[in-house]
Amino acid sequence: MTLRQSIFTSDKYARIEWAFFIFIWFISPLLTDLEYGFNEEPKQLQWSYFQVNIIRRLVWGFFTVIPYYLYYKLAIQPLLIKKRYGYFLLSVLLFVAVRELYTVYIMYGSIARLSFLPIEMITEAQKVLKLKGRFHFGINYLVFQLLIMIALAYFIHLDKQEKQIRQLKQLQAETDLQYLRSQLQPHFFFNTLNNIYALALQQSQLTAPLVAKLSDMMRYVLYKTTQPKQPLTHEIHFLSNYVDVQSVRYHDKTAIRFDTQGITDQALIEPLLLLPYIENAFKHGIEEVHTGFIEVIICLNDQELTLSVKNSKAAGATDQSLPNSHGNGIGLDNTQKRLSILYPGRHSVQVKETNETYEVLLTIILN
Prior knowledge:
CATH architecture of the largest domain: 2-Layer Sandwich
Structural class: alpha+beta
Helix content: 55-70%
CATH superfamily of the largest domain: Histidine kinase-like ATPase, C-terminal domain
Number of strands: 7
Strand order of the largest sheet: 2-4-5-7-6
CATH class of the largest domain: Alpha Beta
Number of helices: 10
Oligomer: single chain
């Protein structure tokens, strides 16, 4: 961003900078003078005193803010923030020299010649110009002003970094979601189409309902999951369809239970966030066991969402959460990353495993 752009931009950081400089070089000196007048010279507090003092601070503030703002944009931000410390130290020495010349020949020189200003200001400027062998500004004030400008620059720099990190995390979450969508579509939808084909050959009455559920699921994945959040009822409806479609494949081999409690339209959730846990149960609870059970319970209590998924295991099966030769577990890994990004400190995952069963308990504070 150029200096001209930073002056006229509507960016919030530029607004913060200008508010900072206006307060430090205009408002704060006025308040300080007012406090001094009340405490030290209350007899002089007349309207003429305020008039002269206000004009003095506005004129001095105008002349003073220009070199400090230029130094802030041209040296502190590009040199100090980028850790070019050697060049920054040289810039400080150069600024002190330029500041002295500017104060004498530009600031006080101009004030001494501006006849429309109060006579008190003109007289003060002329007296300052006659001083020799000393700085025409306070070193202590200069150091203090440089320090607070450095603090401002670091504050804005850190805030920008945090904003970039949040954007990267959001991008990562969206990338993981796209991966989950692409992972779900090929193997699940093609397998389901094969099942529908087999049912159609048998002229089964389950064919039409299964096609309707599959169409509903495809519509949700293709269109609804492009939004950052969906009503929890929509996500539950999708999961219910998923379980129903899978149940058709394994209806003669397994006992499948899917229950929900307290689900409302007001609650929102990121799409396809719960699916990998249920999908994982079908992969391990049925495909490897060939017979067994799956139990899915989803409960919403106020803003606390709980997903409990329990399934049977094959004898001697390894941890379900680990990847195997079929790529299993990748979806769970991505889901854990999404949970860390989307609900930091507001989710927990508990796993209970025995020789015969595997259970996952996921808790999320949605709001």
